[in-house]
Amino acid sequence: MGGALACAPLARADVTESEFLDDIPVVLSVSRLSQPVNEAPAAVTVIDQDMIRASGFRDIPDLLRLVPGFSVAYTRDNTWAAGYHGLGDAYSRRFQVLVDGRSIYSPHYGSVNWTDLPLSIDDIERIEVVRGPDAALYGANAFAAVINIITKTAAQVGGEFVSLQYGEQGMRGATVRHGGGDGPLRYRLTASAQQRDRFERDITTKTGAGVGDNGQYFEASKTYFLNGRWDWQLSADSDAMAQFGVSQGDWKAGKQTLDPRSALEPRTQDSGALYLQVAHHKIESARREWRLQAYHAQNRFDANAAADLTSLGFGLVNVDQYLLQTRSNVELQVNEQWRSDLRGVWGGELRRETVGSPQNYNSGRTLSGELARVFGNVEWRPHDRLLLQGGTMLEHHYFTGTDLSPRIAANFTVVPGHVIRLGVSRAYRSPTFFEQDGNQVFVLQSGAIADVVTVPSDGLKPERVLSREIGYVGHWRAARLEMDARLFMDKIDDFIGQDKYNFVNDGALRPNEFKYANIGSARSHGGEIQLRWRPVHAVDVSAHYARVFLDAHFGGAGIHNVINFNKDVPVSAPRNTWGLLASYSPGLGWQASLGLWRSDAMKWLSEGDITQAYNRMDLRLARRWTWEGREVEAAVVGQSLLGSYQEFRDTNIFSRRVYGSLSLAW
Questions:
Q1: Are 615 and 624 in contact (CB under 8 A)?
Q2: Which of 294, 276, 433, 279 is nearest to 353 (CA)?
């Protein structure tokens, strides 16, 4: 009963890979209850270890390419962008991203610091992606989707493991893991060094108004990290877990172009992250269990330069991008089964976040805020064919006050294995520190102001989304085929975007400044489908398709200049996207896999460009064997074999490349 009641962060170990392969997949994230996917109150995609291995991806954000409706891109400053049904920008502010229940999005920009995340892709058990709002269980940032990364327990990875990668475009990687302990106490330690140089360095093809973008682009990353996990089985009904992680990034960034303002972008960046997480899980009875979790996380970023803008009539400009962010969190979750047809989950959370960045806030002080949440979700089965679920989150946020995020859903079994789902939910996204109070200023070495880039907002309301969906989940056991289809309609109000105007008469580099404001509304509707087909043990095929329509309506009091809002938002989602990942294992340890992806043209918001439609094909050939008691796998992976394409900016050219991989386990 403990496994049946267990919540998303704690029950992970109770659901084995065989359950995913042999029957309807069980998910843990959607309602914080362990459920088959056809009983979940929202659409969900499961990326398991087989898919991760077959994809050949070595960067965690790339795995989101396996999810219908997602767009993924590497942006600038060694960061990633992601969008779901559009509205994606450099900061991906509308996702709740969790690692073993620990929230990792940035309180400063709202982005996820993927590049310095101290987590190896080899340590991931699976990823569950809730497609649609889930604020009823996860709060304000669960606005468009929830990405829950579930790592392997210490008991799953006993012994030694080494993984090496070497390839074109500066692709290097080395990961070493040790798992030990016995009886009730197990542990694992992972150390890794990763190097990337993702795009072509020299850009010479820009013409016309874009000729100033021609030049050299220096972005590349070297990141080193160490993490560890301990799992204690304290008694038959009680266990504890502790984790830590630290990372250090030595990155190159910036550019040297015909535009002299490119000197404002530092060429080197120093990044670091650390976290500590502890949790205690207790099964009180066959009908009740709880989990108490606490964690602290810190992200630091520093990049400095002295930009010579004498040619523009200025002297030397100090660039100081220092940024320090922290998050401290404690959460209680209680799962209960009241009757055979009625169960639920409830809990609460307290959080404190801080941000400090002199250049971004024009102040040496540290900004801070506290939020509090209580949540609950009930699952009731009044009939064998009908499952009703309802949940809500009551949240008090340090900027926007109190909000209520409800969700209701009904799952009706037409015939065994075929379920229709209806769902309605309301979610909010509170502004980030930078949206609310950002005041980015460049200062001359003389102390005079060279440029004011952003000014603080006049006070922001949270973004609101009303989401409605009709879903279908089908499972053909004899054919070993699973299908998930969804029609959706989302309405977003009080959209937070940038207003551009001469708010400060600084007579500087750029006459206008940016201010975040609630600038309008957006509507999206469309459909998506995903399939998983494993007709025989040797074949595994997953495929997905999404078609999205977006429109926008400007409408904010006192807004000066957002002329691109109605133009850019409707094309921020590619009209059509699809993907295919297929693997074949003929025997003797061999496996071949093929990845195909297609995206129509789209516009990345804020600092992004219109990127052209592209087709991408990846191939992977691997073989596993045993050598002197060691499990060995060698693989070669070719990426973007159909040619180059653009990511986020038209100067970010992802070209054809190949890398090799070797791993040993014993």
A1: no
A2: 433
